[in-house]
TrEMBL record:
The keyword Zinc applies. It is a multi-pass membrane protein. It comes from the Bacteria. Belongs to the ZIP transporter (TC 2.A.5) family. It comes from Microbacterium trichothecenolyticum (Aureobacterium trichothecenolyticum). It is found in: Cell membrane. GO terms for cellular component: plasma membrane. Its main location: membrane. One of its GO terms (molecular function) is zinc ion transmembrane transporter activity. Keywords: Cell membrane, Membrane, Transmembrane, Transmembrane helix, Zinc. This is Zinc transporter ZupT. The chain crosses the membrane at residues 6-27, 34-52, 64-81, 146-169, 190-213, 219-238, 250-267. The keyword Transmembrane helix applies.
Length: 270
């Protein structure tokens, strides 16, 4: 029973920082440049985590075949979800009337809305889509990550490096996604339900990792672990780094390096 509670605590700590990041972004008007810098640091943390805590250990314990299959599978899973959401956002934007700034659009209620407002709404939809993509990435990699945290309890208690790295990297995911969703016009209720649901799923997945995989083979554990790693890397490359680069430009690489180094030192010192 103690192990069950430790697994739940691991998931709560790891997923809880998603909620913290979301709350900070919603209630504090953080300049987008700072949000971008935090996202760049988070990208570095994530890359370090997947390299030293996930892929390396999966290959050592489960072998190259499940590691390769899981890593590619996680990346493909994320990319497919990314494309589906991005396509939906583009379709919404394309459905908006394309007018010059001096014209207006007449709606059924008789109100005339200037074209520049229509354009801003279309842009807001695209921004909101980017925020949702990050949230989907957090969900895709969060489930196997949380299962890994539950598995670590089986191997001798809470793994401080894994839980800390996941918690640190989840904060900018919640922050960056919520900042984009807020700029895109999403409601506070929608954002709260979105991240509360994802955080709850991480707790359940962590408990599941402890309960359901007690007799799992090293190959299966390696597969699950590297699905998380593949999804992480695809999300970092497709979403977090481009979003950060839009604001930070040349400094993006420096912030990502600092994040990577911090997570690496945590791995080495614990």
């Amino acid at each position: 029973m103690e192990g069950l509670w430790l697994a739940a605590l691991s998931g709560l700590i790891g997923g809880g920082t998603l909620l913290v990041g979301a709350a900070v972004a919603w209630y504090i008007d953080i300049p987008q440049r700072i949000v971008a810098g935090i996202m760049a640091v988070g990208a570095g943390v994530l890359i370090s985590t997947l390299a030293f805590e996930l892929v390396e250990e999966a290959a050592a314990d489960g072998g190259l075949v499940p590691t390769t299959v899981g890593f590619l599978g996680g990346a493909i899973l994320y990319i497919v979800a990314d494309q589906l959401i991005s396509r939906r956002s583009r379709q919404r934007a394309a459905g908006s009337p394309q007018l010059d700034a001096s014209s207006v659009t007449e709606y059924s209620d008789g109100d005339a809305i200037p074209a520049n407002i229509v354009a801003r709404r279309a842009g807001a939809q695209a921004v909101s889509g980017a925020g949702l993509v990050i949230a989907v990435g957090a969900l895709i990699d969060g489930i196997p990550e949380s299962i890994v945290m539950g598995l670590s309890v089986l191997q001798g208690g809470i793994s401080i490096p894994i839980v800390a790295a996941i918690a640190i990297s989840n904060f900018p995911e919640g922050l960056g996604s919520t900042a984009a969703l807020k700029r895109g016009g999403s409601s506070g209720r929608y954002v709260a339900l979105l991240w509360s649901g994802i955080a709850l799923i991480t707790v359940v997945a962590s408990v599941l990792g402890y309960v359901a995989f007690q007799s799992a083979s090293p190959n299966l554990i390696a597969l699950i672990t590297t699905i998380a790693a593949g999804g992480l890397l695809a999300m970092v490359c497709n979403t977090m780094i481009p979003e950060a680069f839009d604001e930070q430009q040349a400094l993006t690489g420096l912030w990502a390096t600092i994040g990577f180094l911090g997570a690496f030192l945590l791995h080495e010192l614990t």
